[in-house]
Amino acid sequence: MNDYLFDEFKMLNYINDPVYIHKVNPNTNIPGNFVFVNNAAVGKMGYSFDEFMNLSPTDIDDTSRIENIPKIIKKLKENKDEIFETKHITKTGEKYDVELSSKIIRLNNDPNLYIISVARDITKRKKLEYELNKFKKLADNSTSGVCFLDLNEKIVYINDYMAEIHGYTPDELLGKKWKTLHFKENYDKLDNLIQKLYETGYLESIKMPHKKKSGEALSILSNIVYIKTDLGAIMGVTSRDLSDEEKIIQNLIEAKNKAVEANKAKEIFLANINHELKTPLTGLLGTLSILKESDCTEQNKNFFEMMEKSANTLKDLVNKLLLSSEIKFSHVKKNFSWISFENIFNELKTKYSEEAKNKNLVFKAESQNLDKIVKTDVIMVEEIIENLLNNACKFTEKGFIEFSMVLKNRVLEIIVKDSGVGIDEEYLKNLFNEFSQQDLSYTKKYEGLGLGLFLTKKYINMLKGNISVETSTKGTKFVVKIPVEIKTEENKKIDFNNKKILITEDNSINLELMKEFLNDENFLIDTAADGEEAFKKYEQNKYDLLLMDIQIKKINGLEVIKKIRKKDESTPILAISGFTRPEDRFKFILAGANDFLPKPYTKEELISFIKKLIK
């Protein structure tokens, strides 16, 4: 090679990648020795320049690939240039991956062919591809969408699922920009997210609509991680298609809305049926009562009594059915009051002694400590006892019924025991279910809808009590325990020492009733008929307690409370209202009331609230 050409080739020393030039036998395509290598080749391979001049490509190429060299040279002669991958072996025997970019050149009038090759070290890339291939085996079978992006946001890997949900094949998306799967209006948002990813390294639960090949939208939830390693940096994306889930959620919302509408319709129906059924029953029972007392034959009187009994049975069934529905709609509320169960026990004893006598049954009734005053929902407790005693009478053909009420340690214990038919073991698990009956045959012996024990259990739960049952073929025993508050001497009479109270109530009847309730308690009572008067009196006087009706004229009670609380946080305020929903109570307390008393209320309840607040 002449010195001129050699000087020209020296320009190749400025290239960072190794550059090789070698001869080629034009007839055999066998490569000859190198005629030039640049400094990068010398540094990378470990041979000196002079040593290289005695070597050919077959000396530095992986022996497993040498046989391919003549084929590659043949291709170069046909296509002028070629890019291929191989392995080079350094002087020390170390192998590394290279990407060769080669082409044939001619040197002036030299008849020989020469090949110039630029060798790029692709070891890191091959390692990354190896790691990606390992991951690919897992990702290809994943039920989530998985893809990897290079730092130019081009897709370098995408699994079948990710491509499929977007309407593509993986090959169609490889090399494409990540934005291909997004709508143009979200490009800026996507750029901001990628910038944030570089800063934080991880983005979690990114919900964004994706664009399918067809142009349709997909609801996609993605997690994106920025992976920085010695082999380079990539972005890993895992995605989940939420479209089906959102359809299910939407269907559930629609179903819920329909259910709410249906419940409202049921509520309206129950309100109507309550009126429509009870009104004629009242007329029927009243008429039968008059007819019984009229001047009629003994036979007709018996007929009237039979009709009255049937009408009363119907009334009880209607009441239970309506109560069952009201409980399900949470319309039944507890109404606590102070009561002695002594009189109630005696009334029940008299009533069911007569019923037991009519069936030739022995009836025993016992009580202890019922003279004490307790606080509970009397109507619920009576309903519980009557349901249990009715069942005992209904299912006992011979023998006895025992009934006891005992008050001890702030617990009211009710026991009803009978010698009736007992309860099948199979039926016990459904005993307190709605419409549950042991005998459902066409020839069933006992009447009823199967609501008594359902209501009993619901009432007991509302009163925070419990019920247990023991049964056999020789009879059944129910034990009910209900916690109650026992009135102490402090409860019975409190000296309020002329405490001053302002009552704000625009209903004259309710105002007089409240004053009557407080008449014996030594209060100094002042009144206001509307919100303006109430606030004016508050500013002119000092009160120990404010009783504030909410639905009053001029300024409603809620606004009056707020105005007072801007000036004074210490004076106790009891909000009183017929609005009794939990959200109403929350509003009153939030406005500044210390407590809330729902209408209608008893004297005992009013005194109890006042005592608590003034203390």
Characterise the protein shown here.
The structure is a single chain. The chain has 21 helices and 23 strands. With about 625 residues, it is α+β, with helices and mostly antiparallel strands. The chain folds into five domains: about 5-120, Beta-Lactamase, CATH 3.30.450; about 125-240, PAS domain (Beta-Lactamase, 2-Layer Sandwich), CATH 3.30.450.20; about 250-330, Helix Hairpins (Orthogonal Bundle); about 335-485, Histidine kinase-like ATPase, C-terminal domain (Heat Shock Protein 90, 2-Layer Sandwich), CATH 3.30.565; about 495-615, 3-Layer(aba) Sandwich (Rossmann fold). It starts with a helix and ends with a helix. The relative contact order is 0.04. It catalyses: ATP + protein L-histidine = ADP + protein N-phospho-L-histidine. One of its GO terms (cellular component) is plasma membrane.
Question: What features would you highlight for this structure?
Answer:
5 domains, kinase, Helix Hairpins, histidine kinase, five-stranded antiparallel β-sheet, Beta-Lactamase, 615 residues, alpha+beta, HisK_dim/P_dom, 21 helices, 43% helix
The gist of it:
The chain has 21 helices and 23 strands.
**Radius of gyration, Cα only, in angstroms?**
47 Å
Report the top-level CATH class of the largest domain. Alpha Beta
Q: Which residues sit in consecutive blocks of at least 5 with pLDDT less than 50?
A: 434-449
Strand order of the largest sheet: 2-1-5-4-3
CATH structural architecture of the largest domain: 2-Layer Sandwich
- Please outline the major beta sheet: 5 strands, antiparallel
Modified residues (4-aspartylphosphate): 549
Organism: Geotoga petraea
Domain PAC: 82-134
Catalytic activity: ATP + protein L-histidine = ADP + protein N-phospho-L-histidine
